[in-house]
Each structure stands twice: as C-alpha cells, then as structure tokens.
Specification:
The protein is mostly helical. It is built from 20 helices and two strands. The protein has one domain (about 5-495). The protein has a two-stranded antiparallel ribbon with strand order 1-2. Strand 1 (about 60-70) and strand 2 (about 75-80) form a beta hairpin. Helix 10 (about 240-250) packs antiparallel against helix 14 (about 325-355), helix 11 (about 255-265) runs parallel beside helix 20 and helix 14 (about 325-355) crosses helix 20 (about 475-495). The chain is globular, with a radius of gyration of 21 Å.
Length: about 500
Amino acid sequence: MNILSLYVLIPLLMLLALWLARNVNQVRGVMLTGASLLLALSVWLTITYLNWRGAGSHEAMMLTDSLPWYSPLHICYAVGVDGISVVMLLLSAIIVFTGTFASWQLKPMTKEYFLWFTLLSLGVFGFFISTDLFTMFMFYEVALIPMYLLIGVWGSGKKSYAAMKLTLMLMGGSAFLLIGILGIYYGAGADTMNILELAERHIPSEIQHIFFPLIFLGFGVLGALFPFHTWSPDGHASAPTAVSMLHAGVLMKLGGYGCFRVAMYLMPEGAAMWGNVFLILTTISVVYGALSAVVQTDLKYINAYSSVSHCGLVLFALLMMTRISCTGAILQMLSHGLMTALFFALIGMIYGRTHTRDVRQLRGLMKIMPFLAVGYVIAGLANLGLPGLSGFVAEMTVFVGSFQNADVFHRTCTIIATTSIVITAVYILRVVGRILYGTCTNDAHLKLTDATWDERVAVICLIIAVAGLGLAPWWVSDTISQSVEPIVSRLALSL
C-alpha cells in the first residue's frame, strides 16, 4: 500500500471508531489519536520529502501510484505529492489537530459533529494527494457535502440560510468543474484522466480557450473569487469554531490549489488568453475584501472578509505567472491558513465566554483574559504582515514576484493590490484597540475566565506554526519553488 493512502485510511478508521464510540470520552480519544497520527504522518512526509530533494531527486511527483478504478472511463485512484501538496497536507493536519482541541467541549451531539468533521477532513486530504482529475473531483465533493450539516446543525445566527447559500454556490462551481474536466478529458484524447499524463500532451488551443474559464471559475468560487465570494462571509459567520478553522484554513485553499494544479498547468494557452480578465477580478477581490472588513462590527465577519482579501491575493499571485509570485501564492495559502485558523479559534473562545461577537460590546479583554487577548494580537499582527510572522513573508514574496512583470497593466494591478496592506492594518488595529484595551463596561465580563488547557494547546500550536513560518521560511519557500518551476515554465511558453 502506498504510504499516501494512509491519509484516506486513517480518517476512514476514525469514522468507524467514532461510530462505535459509546460516550464523549471515547469520541475525544478517537479524535485525538486520529488527529495526532495524521499530524505525525504529515511531519514525517515533509521531512522525508526534504531529504529526497536534498539527495538530488528531481521527479515532478514523488510516491506516485495508480490503481484502476473504473476502466471504461480510464478513472484511476492515482496519488502523488510534490512540494506544494506536501506543505498543504501539513497545513491540513495542523488545523485538524488544533481544531479537535478547539471543539473539545462542544455539545450537544459531539459524536455526530466529529463524524462529519472527520468526513470533511477526509475530502481535504484526499484532494491534495490525488493526481487523477475524477478522483480529485470526488474528494472535492466529499469535502463540500459535510459543510451543509456542520453549519446548518451546529452553527449559529442565520445558519440555515448560510448553509444553503454556501452549498448552492459551491455546487454551482462544481458543475463548472465537471464540464471543464470532461472537456479536458475528451480534448486530450479520452484515454486518461491522470494529470501527469495529460500534462505531457497538447490539448488543442480551442479546447483550452473554452474550458479554462470554466475550470478556473469552478475552483475560483471556492477561492472566494469576486463576485462569487458572497457565500464565504455568511458561511464563516455561522459555522462552529473548528469548522470555521478548517473552512477558511484549508477548504478555501482547495480553490487556489485546483486553479494552479489543474487549470493553469493543463491549459497554459487558456491561462494566457484569459489571465488578464481574471487578474482584474482578483485585484478587486483583494481590495474589496479589505474595505468590507473595515465597516464590519462582527468579529467573524471581519475575519471572513479578510479571508476574501487574502484568498484573492492567492489567485492574484498565481495569475502573475512568475516563479516568485506563484511561490508567494502557495506561501500565502499556508500563511493565511494558519493565521485564519488562529483567528477563528480565538474568536470562538471569546464568543463562548462573552456570548457576543460585536466589537462595540467588547472592551478591556486584555485584563480579563490575557492569554486569549495576546493570542488575538499575534494573529492580528500576522494578518497585517508584521516582519517575523508568516504574513510578511507571504505578502512580500507575492508583491515582489508580481512586480517582475514590466508592463503597465500588471504593475498597475500590483500597486492597487498593495493598498490592501494599509487597509488591513486599519481594521486589525482598530479591532485590537477597541476590544482588548480600554475599560470594561460590562460587569458580567469581569467574571469571565481565561483559556482552558485544551484551548491553550490549540492556540499555542497555531502561534508556533505562524511564528515558525515567519522566522524560518527558507525551507518552505525552497520546497515550493522547486515544484512551482515546471508549471511556471509551461505558462511562460504560452505567453
């Protein structure tokens, strides 16, 4: 058995064990064991991959394997990893592990919640290891389906509306994806769905021009591409804490990963034709998301619109089509995943105590719950790009790489996008100053307690990851850059 199949097997065994669990303690034990195994597997895979690259291995994909699944349509269970998918698997494992602790005290229906949460993580892990178009699409759908129930049942606020809106819009994106996948399949000769094999063939230019926008839009909807982003703030605001962490931290990254791995890699001529159109939309996403966050008063909505801006920056960097910008895009996916997970974890913990997310009703929390307050400050500083934290490394790489395009259009888009840094600083510092400092005006808040041990584990792990990426980015950057090169080279030939 290929070692990558453990990313599918472990969640499946977790689902079985959760089904058999008799009480909450057994459920927690299953989740802790499974999440720890996935994290250990991801750390081992990362170290092993780095060692292989250090030893001189130059294969585009490692640990590849393929088993026939449905021969008439040439569908295979095909897996493999490169530097991009390795770091995304590590990100997913970190957030599943910390999300488990963030949901440690969740009630009611703890068992059922973790069943759907595990199924969601199964889809995410399966998506990142897949090298077959149909298998990737299947895992993509598996990741989306649980979101409806997790938000609709365990969410808050307008949860039914948010769950329905999210599901319908993402399923609409899935329809575009399916049409695009079939277009690639038949355009390439209808005898394989393996991405590595398809990349070696030349899909006719006419096919690329037609189906590239469908694939890019299909994945772009999940990546909060303007104007298809509206599901994201509502979904974030209503989702339970751990679901928001996985939703913003990992699930939205499937969009950027799919755009790069499928749309741009397999259809470089389509990317050359449509790139500027989507670049305008992503530039709008970056600025619009930041501006929208400024006027929000709900902590989750602020972070949700911030996610629209930062995920827009991922697609923006990919469409700049330089090696540095695309490396920055993956770094941004990793950085945003970690700091957003930290944000949503802290917001959920604060909300669980104060029963409000309205910044106008929160003051003086630094004196009442200093651990959570300091964690929120660190997350905010990472979000606005403070040197030494992950956000600075990612955003600087994106903008430096984007500015390598010497033409007026690309540089104008880059300059416009950089304004988001200032806007981000405005809403982050405004919120931090308002809710953490000053004098508490609500007597009930003075009786609140600070973080419990399980909450501290989740927060500390995420802070270490955010700081680690910011202080030691070189190994991640080098790993990503090597895997970005083959895709960027194909794009360069089409420009």
